[in-house]
Amino acid sequence: MEMSVEIVAHAPAFAVVAETVADVAAREALLDRAMGPKRKTKSSEKLRRGRRPSEGLAFVARDASGGVAGTVRLWDVTLGEGGSSALLLGPLAVDPSLKSAGI
Ligand SMILES: CC(C)(COP(=O)(O)OP(=O)(O)OC[C@H]1O[C@@H](n2cnc3c(N)ncnc32)[C@H](O)[C@@H]1OP(=O)(O)O)[C@@H](O)C(=O)NCCC(=O)NCCS
Question: In the structure, which protein residues have their CB atom closer than 6 angstroms to any atom of ligand 1?
Fold first, then answer.
């Protein structure tokens, strides 16, 4: 059975929903603003390179006009050789102009 979950963030003007293909450009621009141009050189980014996020675990926070105000994804990883499966969180970011608004 397929389930759909919508999580409403504390800030009432925002809703956390599944990311769509149409959000990708806005998500990348937001990450550049929130984390700076060197974000792709981080060790966590190297782990994610060439992978796809975990199925159904990429979310955006949408503002009232549908814009992308925040982003978070999770990634399937394996701990060590032949180790157990785990989820790697990130990147997690909120548009700098909306920080500390509860998103
Ligand atoms: C971290 C981030 C996503 C928080 O988003 P936000 O919408 O501003 O957060 P909220 O308003 O929901 O919550 C603010 C709370 O988070 C805490 N917080 C903010 N940044 C934090 C951080 N890097 N680590 C731990 N706590 C943090 C604040 O102290 C505050 O706590 P309080 O409610 O107890 O006072 C946002 O500041 C951001 O995009 N930062 C730049 C990107 C980043 O560093 N991401 C994390 C690593 S991938």
Answer: 34-35, 90-94, 99-103
> What CATH number corresponds to the domain at position 77?
3.40.630.30
Distance 82 CA to ligand 1 centre (A): 34
Question: Which residue is closest in CA terms to ligand 1's atom 9?
Answer: 100
Q: Which domain holds residue 81?
A: 15-97
- What are 33-46's pLDDT values in tens digits? 999 989 988 888 88
Predicted local confidence at residue 65, as pLDDT: 92
Token reading at 39:
């974000």
In ligand 1, the atom with minimum distance to the C-alpha of 44 is 48
Nearest in space to 31 (alpha carbons), one of 92, 101, 97: 92
